[in-house]
Amino acid sequence: MKKMIQHGLAIVDSPYDEDGKKRTLVNKLLLGLTPSQYLLQAFRNPFNWILAAIFAIGIPILIGRFFFGLAWATSGSNDYPWGLFLGFGLFAMVPLSSSGFQLGTACEIFGRHDLEPIERLALLNGLLGYFFAVMYLLADLGQPWRLPYPMVVSFGPAAVLFLVAWHVATYLSVQVAEVSTAFFEWIGFPAGKRGVRKITLGLTVSGIILSTLHQGALGALFTYAPGKVHPLWYSSSFQWLHFFVSSLPGGLCMVITVSTIAAKTMAWRGDTRFHEKLDKVTVSLAKGACMGIATYITIKLIAIAHDNKWAYLDSGWGQWFMFEIIVGFMLPLTLMTYGVHTRKMAIVRLGAFMTVFGVVLNRVNTAMITFNWKLPHREIPPWREVIISLTIFATYIVVYRFILYRLPILFKWRRQEQEETVPEAVPVPALGRREASSVPVASYSSMTKLD
Amino acid sequence: MKRRNFLKACLIGGTTIALGKTNKGWASGSFEGYPEAMGVLVDTTRCIGCRSCEAACNKEQKLPEPDTSFDDPSVFEHERRPTSKAYTVVNRYQKEQPSGPVYRKVQCNHCNEPACLTSCFVNAYTKTQEGAVIYNSKVCVGCRNCMIACPFNVPGYDYDSATNPIVKKCILCYDTRLKYGKPPACVEICPQEALTFGHRADLIKLAHERIRATPERYVDHVYGEKEVGGTSWLYLAPVGFDKLGFDTTLSNDPIISNVKDFLGMVPMVLSIWPALFSGIHLLCKHEEQDGHGHDTDSNQEDTKP
Question: Which of A79-83, A295-299, B76-80 has the highest mean pLDDT?
């Protein structure tokens, strides 16, 4: 894309092309390129070749899993019922997707409108993370076609998993609604956008409630298995807090990570506002993440003290635990604090990457590695399970990129608002109107007033 | 706007979420099982490892042929666990002891407050009046949370089946025998009378009676009387239960007690969060109106319809 833009290609960021004609859907889908140009740029991208290789191998295996059963594809055994699909796909993807509700809260509830350049990215990150966590779940369920059963057929309301199922399902629809404003702008359906903006605050508050509960609930799932998860990763009183609190820096750092990657690999797609504000916004996010990590480390220590589990630290498991805490949380906390103070963005971002790693490692440790720690053998995922996990993750990246390329997430959709939603009666000077309308295109700020 | 819309949205959001879980409060009483529950007392000092219980179970439950025959003692070389093809297995322990090996039968213990049941989000498990924990394969989604939750590592899963994989475990021969007041197949066939079928309450008395009568024969503990809130299967042993592969670290509280902290927190979040965050929101707005706001654009925006 970079080359084509250098050759004078106009980037699609408004409903009209450079001649002032309305863009067609195909034109928007192809990013304003002709089909041959589009294919050319797709072929030229080496990352696409890697993806193609993953899909070529992975998709047949993924299909095979549904024909030959779980035993064919996974290490799923009677002692280790949950493997990579849930350990990585569900338990790690969900905390990394807590960004949606956090940035929603910051912008809509706390009125931090300076974070708006990143709000949509955070919302999208939340939506896609949850959606693909569900995809991993579908690959893992014995009878995936019965996924709606807890909603419509048979209720087990006293179970934590029931809570998770309902909350993830309702929260997914909340997130679809939150992200849909960008989609409505893109397809040119301002009425839909206005409708969603009316309920933004309600959506945001339900987002906080649902997130708190099910991020915690994922941790609470393990309180069904006291003694199975290693005591250093288990705490019946604090498990839900551990999961909830660590999801906060996890989600924020995931947004830093994704925005860093997006700013590097698709710089053309972000508008000047995004690129100019990115460092400042990253610092804000990193500050929030630091508070989260500090809290997390504290309650982790309190949990160890509460059950007096210090002796476990002096063992092989203890070393592994210290590795997770130090490399995944303490070191990034130090790095980000230092980076924020000295405004060294590379260090802040490194810290964010490490936090993402730390959160993923924590979830994989709890769900897989330290699970059934008393049993003599550990389960190593077989290659088919690894490839299926990789394939679903690659799909996640492709969908993520597909949306970032097209929808106004990293840039503002121009002109449409002023043409279609501002009534003539409002006495705003033409120039001011253009500016004024361009801001809330990417924000719901007007809806947050309780006047 | 918008206060009214906002409150409305909160209310709708809150009730939608609250609708799903009403049972939480009632889950907190202490439940000690049905008074008429049946059970089985396993006297490991009497078991000779003949595995006829395994064979009887296999026949009664119409399970597939085992890999090695039920007469083959080589299976004792490794510790086994119940699977989807064998609802009960007999393991051998203490083989190097001069007093001879001890055999232990493993199957679902039919807890009074089963973790599988309380962890199941589609209510696939039922604890019957007769004490059996049975399973409804028609609604099982296959999440295998029950296998995570079972403190005895009992449920086995049909990993090989692509179309209808289900959880398989001992159901105390509920459909074919227990319902009609008959003992399970394994109990009926046991040649050593190592297994005794009866009311759970009577079995506990019987077990303590046996310990009292011959204290040198048993350790003074009935496994399953109190573990995880009590189980329908009870065990007597000549040596420490930890030497026979039993988990002796289990608490006497049912597994669900571990989860109650969280379950109690749920209604708190549902009720407190909307008020808390709308309050914070109002506070933040006030500041902006006093001229400390950082986004004048959005104030201007507000005049729009």
Answer: A295-299
DSSP label at B223? B
| Structural tokens at position A43 | 């072929």
Q: What ipTM is given for this predicted complex?
A: 0.82
Tokens 């361009």: give the residue.
Answer: A438
How do strand B125-127 and strand B195-199 relate by DSSP bridges?
Answer: unpaired
**Interface-testing mutation among B108, B266, B283, with chain A (most A C-beta atoms within 10 A):** B266
Report in angstroms the alpha-carbon separations of A241 from A298, A299, A309. Answer: 11, 8, 18
| Residue of chain B minimizing CA distance to A422 | B304
- Name the residue in chain A with its Cα closest to that of B259: A223
Please report the residues numbered 142 through 201 in chain B whose beta carbons come closer than 8 angstroms to any beta carbon of chain A. Answer: 142-145, 147-149, 151, 153, 155-162, 164-166
Tell me which residue of B85, B117, B140 sits closest to A143, measured CA to CA: B140
In this complex, do B147 and A165 lie within 8 Å of one another by their Cβ atoms?
A: no
Tens-digit pLDDT profile for residues A265-281: 988 888 888 999 999 99
> Residue B287: pLDDT band by 50, 70, 90 thresholds?
low
How far CA B125 is from CA of B106, B110, B120, in Å, comes to 20, 11, 7
A305-309 long-range contacts, CB within 8 A, separation 24+ = A306/A235, A306/A237, A306/A238, A307/A231, A307/A235, A309/A231, A309/A232
Residue B223 backbone phi and psi in degrees, to 5: -70, 125
Contact B44, B238 (CB under 8 A): yes
* Residue B180, Cβ density class (10 Å: 0-12 exposed, 13-18 middle, ≥19 buried): exposed
User: Whole-angstrom Cα distance, residue A40 to residue A25?
Assistant: 20
CA of B270 vs chain A CAs: smallest distance (Å) = 6
Q: Is the pLDDT of residue B305 over 50?
A: no
Q: Can you read off the two tokens belonging to residue B62?
A: 């119409």
Under DSSP, is residue A379 helix (H, G, I), strand (E, B) or coil?
coil
Do residue A213 and residue B270 have CB atoms under 8 angstroms apart? yes
In whole angstroms, what is the distance from residue A362 CA to residue A328 CA?
A: 8
Residue A363 sits at the vertex; the CA angle it makes with A362 and A364, to the nearest 5 degrees, is: 95
pLDDT over threshold 80, residue B286: no
